[in-house]
């Protein structure tokens, strides 16, 4: 179990990491990079803003011990970080980089098509119906596509995958959550969806914004996950845009926090 000192230390680390993330974000603008690098930088900006928002709902700022809301934001942060990892990865072959770029925009346009399909008369649908089959064909013809498992080939063709690697594999390969990923993700998901698992535990003490040992434990755990993820993504963004000389202090702090963080 975690105690008050664990929470205070984790929340203090998170606050300092946000300052480092903002520093790197401020220095990320106007740097020439690849298409994937541009999209990764957009995701990094989103993650920085998300971290700032999470800080405002922590108990030491909101005065509420609201784990369900923090769980929702933490799960989103985890998933979004994995997308940054996917787009910011370096040393890819030209074929794989081309594949990831085409997959990114194919999935984007599939989601737009599904959204606008809720309004069958929307004028933009015609252009998607013409362009999406061509985009899918281009993906299928790429050499890298042929190296994928049938599972991922089918998911990609149906527009249901924006990566050809699972979230769990990215979490493990990046050293973020190396063991029991499914446990942590399911814990956050159950509380995010307000499932019976989450709501039946409410009582006169729990689930009302009051401090108690359970809320203290879960919120501290969420902070440890956030600290691991934010410290990693800061380093990745620095490496992506070669900002080492401009962000020495932020990089050093993120690296030290990442190496000392345990989940």
Features of the shown structure:
mainly alpha; globular; 263 residues
Short description:
The protein has helices at 4-26, 35-57, 59-62, 67-88, 94-116, 125-141, 150-157, 167-173, 181-193, 196-199, 213-240, 248-260.
Number of helical stretches of at least 4 residues = 12
Order of helices and strands: HHHHHHHHHHHH
> What average pLDDT do the residues reach?
95
Molecular shape? globular
The largest sheet, given as strand count, sense and whether it forms a barrel, is: none
Ranges where pLDDT stays below 50 over 5 or more residues in a row are none
Measure the end-to-end span.
Answer: 13 Å
Instruction: Work out the helicity level.
Output: over 70%
How much of the sequence lies in strands comes to under 5%
| Radius of gyration computed on alpha carbons | 20 Å
List the helices and strands and how they pair.
Blueprint: H1 4-26, H2 35-57, H3 59-62, H4 67-88, H5 94-116, H6 125-141, H7 150-157, H8 167-173, H9 181-193, H10 196-199, H11 213-240, H12 248-260
Helix pairs in contact: 1-2, 1-11, 1-12, 2-4, 2-11, 4-9, 4-11, 5-6, 11-12
Description:
- This protein has twelve helices and no strands.
- The chain has helices at residues 4-26, 35-57, 59-62, 67-88, 94-116, 125-141, 150-157, 167-173, 181-193, 196-199, 213-240, 248-260.
- The model has no long low-confidence stretch (mean pLDDT 95).
């Amino acid at each position: 179990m975690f105690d008050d000192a664990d929470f205070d230390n984790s929340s203090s680390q998170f606050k300092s990491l946000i300052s480092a993330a903002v520093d790197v974000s401020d220095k990320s603008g106007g740097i020439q990079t690849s298409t994937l690098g541009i999209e990764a930088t957009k995701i990094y900006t989103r993650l920085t803003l998300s971290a700032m928002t999470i800080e405002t709902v922590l108990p030491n700022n909101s005065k509420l011990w609201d784990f369900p809301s923090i769980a929702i934001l933490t799960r989103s942060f985890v998933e979004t970080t994995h997308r940054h990892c996917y787009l910011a990865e370096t040393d890819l072959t030209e074929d794989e980089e081309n594949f990831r770029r085409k997959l990114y925009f194919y999935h984007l346009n599939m989601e737009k098509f599904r959204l606008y399909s809720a309004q069958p008369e929307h004028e933009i649908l015609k252009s998607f119906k013409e362009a999406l089959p061509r985009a899918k064909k281009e993906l299928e013809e790429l050499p890298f596509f042929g190296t994928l498992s049938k599972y991922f080939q089918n998911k990609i063709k149906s527009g249901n995958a924006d990566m050809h690697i699972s979230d769990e594999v990215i979490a493990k390969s990046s050293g973020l959550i190396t063991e029991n990923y499914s446990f942590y993700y399911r814990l956050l998901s159950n509380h995010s969806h307000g499932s019976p698992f989450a709501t039946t535990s409410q009582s006169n003490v729990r689930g009302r914004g009051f401090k108690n040992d359970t809320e203290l434990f879960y919120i501290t755990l969420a902070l440890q996950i956030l600290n691991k993820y934010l410290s990693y993504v800061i380093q990745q963004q620095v490496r992506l845009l070669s900002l080492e000389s401009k962000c020495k202090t932020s990089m050093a702090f993120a690296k030290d926090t990442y190496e000392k963080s345990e989940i």
